[in-house]
Amino acid sequence: MTEARESAGPHARRVPGTPCWVSLMAHGLAATEEFYGELFGWEFRPGPQQLGPYVRALLDGHEVAGMGQLSPDHRLPIAWTPYLAADDVDHTADTVRECGGTVAVGPLDAAEAGRMAIAADPSGAVFGIWQVAAHLGTTLTGVPGTPAWNELITFETESVAKFYETVFGYEKEPVVSADFDYVTLHLEGRPVAGLHGVGHALRDRGPHWQTYFEVGSVEAALRQVADLGGRILRQTHDSPHGRIATVADPEGAMFSVIENPH
What we know:
Elements: E1 19-26, H1 29-40, E2 43-46, E3 54-59, E4 62-69, E5 80-85, H2 89-98, E6 102-110, E7 114-120, E8 126-132, E9 147-154, H3 157-168, E10 171-174, E11 181-187, E12 190-197, E13 208-214, H4 218-227, E14 231-239, E15 242-248, E16 254-259
Parallel strand pairs: 1-4, 5-8, 9-12, 13-16
Antiparallel strand pairs: 1-5, 2-3, 3-4, 6-7, 7-8, 9-13, 10-11, 11-12, 14-15, 15-16
C-alpha cells in the first residue's frame, strides 16, 4: 500500500479514475453520524437527497466523506464505497458493462453537485463513479480524519486488474512476490489505489473495496472505536506505510485506520 496524497483545493484537477470521494450507506444515519463525529471529529451538513437522506461530513470546514440512509427494505451491505472520477459517467458506465461489470444505480444527476452511478466489477465489488459539477469531492487529505487510501480486497488481482485498467486507464505495478498478490494502480505516475488478492481468506464477505482513514494514533482510535460500540477486526500491525488496524462501526461497516509514520 502506498499513500495517495494530493492537493485537493477548489480547482484541483481530477484525473479520471482518481478516488475522489467515499460514501457510506447505513440504516441509522443519526447514530452513524455520532460514531464518526466522535471518532474523526467530523461535523455534518445536508447533501443531495436523490437516494434518500444524505449528509456530507466536514473536517475543519472541508468536505471529506458522505453518508446516506438506507430504506428499511434495502439489504445492501453496510460498507464504505469509494467513488472514482470520470469525465463522462454515462460513457464510463457503458464501459463497465462492456467489460463484464454491472451498473446498479444511475447514471443520475445529484442535484447541482454532479452526476453519479454505482457499479460493481466482474467479481462483485461495488464502487461509485463521479462526474463533477459543483461538488468536487474530498477537499482535504493528509491529516487525521481524512481518507488516506482505497484498496480492493478480492480473490486474485490478475483478471480484475484488467477490468480497472480498461475502464479507467490505470497503469499497474504488481508486487513481485510468490506469496503476496498485490497490485498498485497508478495514474500519471502517481499511486492512487491498490488491489489485494487474498484467495479463500475472503470467506463469506466477497470482494469489496476498503477505505483507510488517517488517524493521529491507531491505539487511541481503537480505544475510541470500542468505546463507541464498534469492533476491532484486526489489531494494530506495522507496515512500510505506517501502523494499521482494521475495525467495524456499530452497523458492521469495515474500514482501516492508519497512523502515518511522518
